[in-house]
Amino acid sequence: MFGRIAHRYDLANRVLSCGIDIYWRIRLVSAVRDTHPKDVLDLATGSGDVAFALARGLSPGVCILGVDFCAPMLVEAEAKRALIKGSGARVEFKQGDALALPLPDGGFDAVTIAFGLRNMADRPKCLSEIRRVLRPGGRLFVLEFSQPWRPVRPFYSFHLRHVVPRLAGLLTGDRGAYEYLGDSIGGFPGRAGLSAEILGAGFASVTSFGMTMGIVALHEAQR
């Protein structure tokens, strides 16, 4: 499904979020920067937006590895390399399964995953793999859709189920992919529920804050 929409994925994200996705990534990068990592894994990297944002926002010398299961998405990511020209960070991409990462134990100071955790067939296993590849004291940053403020929920649900698929169908030619989006968001836990899942995977602590009326949340956890 993601392979089918890879060529118009970025355009759809900008239009459907009214550009607010850029702000969400800025907040993510700011949180990661505060921990001063040297090696960062961007999991479910997709077309590389977060990886390149990290490259622009982190200190020179940081190594960033973007991993995704979907090869067409990684083709789009590689095509963006001009965006990091002049950056001191090194960005590489690798195809891999988040449920069985082809990476050694304890190789990263930070792991980011933006709008990808809810797509995992087995979230506990994914979180366990993330914990495995983090160094002791390393940080996990999860930027993901959440459950919005209660007064907003009826309007948001209508938007997801009726407006988003129609508009996305026009932009990408694949309405079905964005019908899935609404279903995946509706079934995803809120901040408390996701925090409990992260702690259940063995992380020592987790904090979270919501953005844009609770539509999106950023969770930070320590290994």
In brief:
Helices cover 43% and strands 22% of the residues. With 223 residues, it is of the alpha/beta class.
Protein described:
Strands 3-2-1-4-5-7-6 form a seven-stranded mixed β-sheet, with helices on both faces. It is globular. The protein has nine helices and seven strands. The chain starts with a helix and ends with a strand. It has one domain (2-148, 188-222): Rossmann fold (3-Layer(aba) Sandwich), CATH 3.40.50. The protein has 223 residues and is an alpha/beta fold. Helices cover 43% and strands 22% of the residues. Helix 5 links the parallel strand 2 (63-68) and strand 3.
Write the layout of secondary structure elements.
Blueprint: H1 2-5, H2 9-16, H3 20-33, E1 39-43, H4 49-57, E2 63-68, H5 71-78, E3 90-95, E4 108-114, H6 123-133, E5 134-145, H7 153-172, H8 175-186, H9 191-200, E6 205-211, E7 216-222
Parallel strand pairs: 1-2, 1-4, 2-3, 4-5
Antiparallel strand pairs: 5-7, 6-7
Note poorly predicted spans: none
* Structural class category: alpha/beta
Could you give a short account of the major beta sheet? Answer: 7 strands, mixed
What is Rg? 17 Å
Percentage of residues in DSSP E strands? 15-25%
The tally of structural domains comes to 1
Can you tell me the CATH topology? Answer: Rossmann fold
Shape: globular
Quote the average pLDDT. Answer: 89
**Amino- and carboxy-terminal Cα gap:** 32 Å
The neighbouring-strand order within the major sheet is: 3-2-1-4-5-7-6
CATH superfamily name? Answer: Vaccinia Virus protein VP39
Oligomeric description of these chains: single chain
Tell me, what is the CATH class?
Alpha Beta
